[in-house]
Design brief:
- The protein has 14 helices and 17 strands.
- The chain has 405 residues and is an alpha/beta fold.
- The protein folds into two domains: 150 residues, Aspartate Aminotransferase, domain 1 (Alpha-Beta Complex); 229 residues, 3-Layer(aba) Sandwich (Aspartate Aminotransferase, domain 2).
- The strands form four sheets. It has a seven-stranded mixed beta sheet with strand order 4-12-11-10-7-5-6, with helices on both faces. It has a four-stranded mixed beta sheet with strand order 1-2-3-15.
- Strand 2 and strand 3 form a beta hairpin.
Length: 405
Amino acid sequence: MTTPLQVTRELFDDVMVPNYAPAGIIPVKGKGSRVWDQQGREYIDFAGGIAVSSLGHCHPALVKAIQQQAEQLWHLSNVMTNEPALRLAKKLVDATFAEKVYFANSGAEANEAAFKLARRWALDKFGAEKDQIISFSKSFHGRTFFTVTVGGQAAYSDGFGPKPGAVLHAEFNNLASVKALISEHTCAVVLEPIQGEGGIIPATTEFMQGVRELCNQHNALLIMDEVQTGVGRTGKLYAYMHYGVTPDILTTAKSLGGGFPIGAMLTTTDIASHLKVGTHGSTYGGNPLACAVAEAVLDTVNQPNVMAQVLSNEQLFRQQLKAINEKYQVFSEIRGQGMLLGAVLNNQYKGRAREFFLASAEQGLMALVAGVDVVRFAPSLVITPDEITAGMQRFEQAVKQVIGV
């Protein structure tokens, strides 16, 4: 008789590549905005799988969608198309500026496709000299070698040999720094409406509109990386809708699948035409399972009442974080939008975000960091007011633990 495998945190160290350092707990069950570990301890989830679990854990609409699709069709290949992919693409097109959709499996893959498309578009229309991509310091666009190079954080891109060339980095929210770099050689400028990994830093309206104008002047594409900000997280379906600025290419993932891996690149018919048959592809991209779940996410999230709930939840988060800060004076500001918020540590606690993150876990709260100075919150879009209040009570205990009160 085979002895059942004992699954413990120590097993990770035995069998997994050590590029992650996961917490000691192993969650085994989730429902809504609550998670339980192997010992049955409950946690309130303010992390959302890093802005992924847009409808919490095991949402009935998503469970139903995957169950139904699992009994019909799992995978074909892109030699053929499938109904869930076409329905999802149509709904994304109808809800955004876009006319064409490409499906991938992650945000990194969506960004990889976007950067390749921008380069191919520029090559076809203007020639090989127009190949530069301008990104921003502190940005994050994925972990493939191309996307990590475009991202503006050397800690993620150094140490792997020669990097892809023709990638420049300006300063976020500094239009003059973009003007200093952009030229006839620029094929695209890529930015996040809110820098996520860089510290939950929203783009100003003036900056966003200025970058759009510079792209127009220099025949460059504007790529918006909405992997973290998309699918309702900021209180609109996509964050670009807050700015009165339309991108040429948009990437989306994370919340789109509600926990099931999927990514997408959205663009116009004219730009999309430069990815001719055979120029790019994905074995799993657009598979029926992922698209069926994402369609259920989109149908559920893209409703006025859900968008209103995201904004009311934001106000409740801000009010309760303000109340905590008035007691303990640990934050210099709360920034972000919707259900993507960052509590910025003041000078006294600068560099200690991980301590707040770890203390939160000890108090039964799942939170995040965004760099060393920001505690990040990216919960379910439909988290309830009672769950927010309960989670904030636990976060207050974590704050007290860190500062020694």
